[in-house]
């Protein structure tokens, strides 16, 4: 199997993973804002996310000689009895990342793409990187690593302030909207619109598509834009309490903080649970089992959510999912799953070479997702000066944290 041998190669993989992991959330957020049901999207996403692990295993995992010390991907898949404790750690990591990704998808709707990625990633680094530092035998430079972790923690705090400030800005826009001139506040108008929507069938199999209407372009950042977005999107959140969104994102961050240490344990056996003659579980076999459990949890939960939806999402069914007419949305969800799967694979490949704590530099992915959020979604348009200052400070801390964590990279020592 192919293994990265040098720090430069590991940093190159981190950079590629940063771009990939910062892009796939944008694709799913686009689909939610277009009104595609998150259950349908996540089912498509889960399929190609698992296929990415198979693809990586059959390519990188089969490169090079197949020796007893470093068996190739298919060899280890054929002998699970040799490494079953490590397989369980890998599958546990897949469970928690699946829960985190699912929570993140709802978090985007509540607090926006930028803040969700910042807070979840920062919590992941603060907890997960600390665990990985000790699991890796302290190979990373602590005097460099932990100041970087501190920068991520500051970025998480700033992310919370950005969300609160932006929510206040949006409320002010709604209170000053043109609907007030007709005798209704913006919230009353929104409530009326949503009540009208509730009179239509909520089951996707019964609902009929609306007649096409001519819609004039609405400027991003205005009250009309917020009301139009809420009316169109699949997850209804406008007027929700700020703590709901922050609670969802915090849960996602905690889940994210555990998957990398679990994968680290799976591939390096720090607890010495494997038999003395058994080789360590390779990163490609570990990633296969990791992705398999992620796939199982993601599909199981979203099949349940088809019939028991939450957050104002319409009810659906397996039949409606299979016959979903949004073929373009399905293609984008499948693409997002493949991009995410490749991004995670590159992260683990870099972590095995330079330490999983240093590989957590890819959690600076909000630099990418915030760029897309501003460009594609108009996030923070027409916001207050305070919001802009907080946003700029948050992104600056991310840049510093990413550079510092990469600088802490070091060669892995044999266990």
UniProtKB/TrEMBL annotation:
Q: What is its main location?
A: membrane
Coiled-coil ranges from the UniProt annotation: none
* Keyword NADP belongs to the record: no
List the record's Gene Ontology CC terms alphabetically.
membrane
Q: Where is this region: Disordered?
A: 172-213
Against Pfam families, the record matches this protein to: Ureide_permease
UniProt biased composition (Basic and acidic residues) = 189-213
Subcellular localization(s) per the UniProt record: Membrane
Could you list the residue ranges that cross the membrane? 12-31, 43-63, 83-103, 110-132, 144-168, 242-263, 283-307, 328-350, 356-377, 389-410
Keywords linked to the UniProt accession: ATP-binding, Membrane, Nucleotide-binding, Transmembrane, Transmembrane helix, Transport
Membrane topology is: Multi-pass membrane protein
A GO molecular function term, named singly, is: uracil:monoatomic cation symporter activity
**What family is it from?**
Belongs to the plant ureide permease (TC 2.A.7.19) family.
PANTHER family (alphabetical): OS12G0503000 PROTEIN, UREIDE PERMEASE 1-RELATED-RELATED
Q: What is this protein called?
A: Uncharacterized protein
Per the UniProt record, the source organism is: Brachypodium distachyon
Lineage of origin:
Eukaryota, Viridiplantae, Streptophyta, Embryophyta, Tracheophyta
Tell me the gene name. Answer: LOC100837106
